[in-house]
Amino acid sequence: MIIINFIEILIWGLLIKSKIVFNHSINNDLNMRFFEALCSGGLLLTDKITNGVQELFAEKFHYVNYRSKKDAIAKINYYLKNEKKRKLIALRGQKSAIKHHTYWHRTKKILDIVYKNKTIKNIAPVKCLNQIDLSYRYANIFFLLRKPYRILQTIKIYGFSVKVFFYFFLSIIKHINTIVPITPNSLRVKIYSYFKF
């Protein structure tokens, strides 16, 4: 934990001292490096991202993008020579990121959406279910986990239901199948080993 924190501090320190911060997204995603670079105060040089970045920032106003390796090198050289332009774009990007795009802003937005919805009433969705639906949901979970004894406990707590009993029956089959595999491949292997083909 201490080593991870030290590495994060070291990386953040390097970002703050950088004149230009390079970013390359994977799968056209708007990644954390994008926001970290803007907040650091260095000029963000990133590949062309079309996944929502246009709604948040303006290219050549808050950051600069590149289209190829050759283009990236040319823009790095250009902005290292033109310090005023580089600092102006970096400053605009930093101000916008700090003003609108920190963890606090994202958390506040999520909480606003959650509390704005009047149907939620600040309680867990599971508390809105009746006993039958709740037992059915638990049975479904325990079926996927191959825990038939937990489905029996669910029946004891919430009462008998045909759907829940059906899950109990299927989970027994799944449980047995984990102990003694009954798949076409396992049967083929057993037959071959028995007859020694």
Distance between the termini: 55 Å
Count of individual helical segments: 10
Helix percent band: 55-70%
Return residue spans where pLDDT drops below 50 for at least 5 consecutive residues.
none
| Structural class by helix and strand composition | mainly alpha
- State the CATH class of the largest domain: Alpha Beta
The ordered string of helix (H) and strand (E) elements is: HEHEHEHHHHHHH
Shape descriptor reads elongated
Q: Under the CATH scheme, which architecture of the largest domain would be assigned?
A: 3-Layer(aba) Sandwich
By CATH, the topology of the largest domain is Rossmann fold
**Which strand order spans the largest sheet, edge to edge or round the barrel?**
1-2-3
Query: In total, how many domains does the architecture comprise?
Result: 2
Mean pLDDT figure: 80
Give a count of the beta strands, DSSP E runs of length 2 or more. 3
Radius of gyration: 28 Å
User: What is the fourth-level CATH superfamily of the largest domain?
Assistant: Glycogen Phosphorylase B
Question: Strand count, sense and closure of the main sheet?
Answer: 3 strands, parallel
Beta content: 5-15%
